Amino acid sequence: MCAVYRPTSDTVWAKQTLGVDLPRVDQDVYPGQSGPILVQSRRDGRRGVGLARFGLIAPWAKDTKLGRHTYNARSETVAVKPSFKQAWRAQQFAVVLVDHFFEPCYETGQAVRWQIRTTSGEPFGIAGLWQRWVDPKSAEIVVSFTMLTINADSHPVMQRFHRPADEKRTPVVLPGVLFDAWLSATVETAPSLLNLSVLPELVSEPASG
What we know:
The protein is mainly beta. The protein has helices spanning 11-18, 85-89, 179-183; strands at residues 5-7, 34-40, 47-54, 72-74, 93-105, 112-118, 124-134, 141-151, 169-171, 173-174, 202-206.
């Protein structure tokens, strides 16, 4: 799982690697707050980066409160869960652009906030889904997203986090070389990218501050 992360603010990396302008967010992002996501048009393949709300709001939701519970989606059930299945079937795949994310480590007996990043130190992506929601009262359009997660019981880094009795989960961390594959995936091919083998090498350490 992932409930808080730091979006990348590396505008040079975004322009050179992705060919896009990056909106800067110089703070950690929690559910209900906005961070940059990379999306690709299914019509013409054009890409763009925009700010979206962390916590997917399904089109049928009456208000934004649903997003408090939908910031992560289990890859095993994403295709059938009411909150996510419309975005999944529409192949609304997104890459959440990240510098690092945080998880609680209980090895001391208490929850200690740890930071997880790639060994290279470069920005990376997290596989996500995006959705467009229209406020029934104001007609405001809200774009939101969720991060896809997988079992991490056997991962050397991600198995260390969360409560001892809980299943270990990790967001699907994508190296830049897999952004194309994820954004152009179909509902048939996307599951092949939702496994531990796609993750780049990760390192973790107690978070400062």
